[in-house]
Amino acid sequence: MMAHNFLEIPEALKSPLPEEVKKALAEWWNWYNERFALPSGAFLHDGGLRVCVAYNTARLSIICAEWCLERGETSCKECENYIGADHVAAHAIKRLQMILDDYNIKYDRADFMLRRTKYVCTDVVFKHTPTVY
């Protein structure tokens, strides 16, 4: 992620976002924060907010290999499903999307890899509307 505008989720809730976006994000954060340990964060992106759950694919590979070796496995293709980081990240983002749907907030899926870290993301779409006095 771009470090210069990266926000922890509690920071994002304090930023100047539309109230409906803040409510939806707070609801998701309360649900997510109690359940999962994968890193998450957000950053302002193209007139919206990109919310991501991330995990290190290299670390996942090491855990997977250790799991296989402990069990005497010769093929480690199945153990990634056992570890489940990608499944957890996808589940968390799907929950965010369901909450955004409840609030009628538009979004797009925006996953990407940066070095050995996978980011499973949702772009929350909103446009800043200037306040007229």
Question: What report would you give on this structure?
Answer:
The chain is α+β, with helices and mostly antiparallel strands and 133 residues long. The protein has one domain (3-125). 44% of the residues lie in helices and 24% in strands. It contains five helices and six strands. It has helices at 9-14, 19-33, 57-70, 79-83, 85-102; strands at residues 6-7, 40-45, 48-56, 107-109, 112-114, 117-125. Strands 1, 2, 3, 4, 5 and 6 form a six-stranded antiparallel beta sheet that branches. It starts with 5 loop residues before the first strand and ends in an 8-residue tail after the last strand. Mean pLDDT is 79; it is low at 129-133.
Please outline what is shown here.
This protein is of the alpha+beta class and about 130 residues long. The protein has helices spanning about 10-15, 20-35, 55-70, 80-85, 85-100; strands at about 5, 40-45, 50-55, 105-110, 110-115, 115-125.
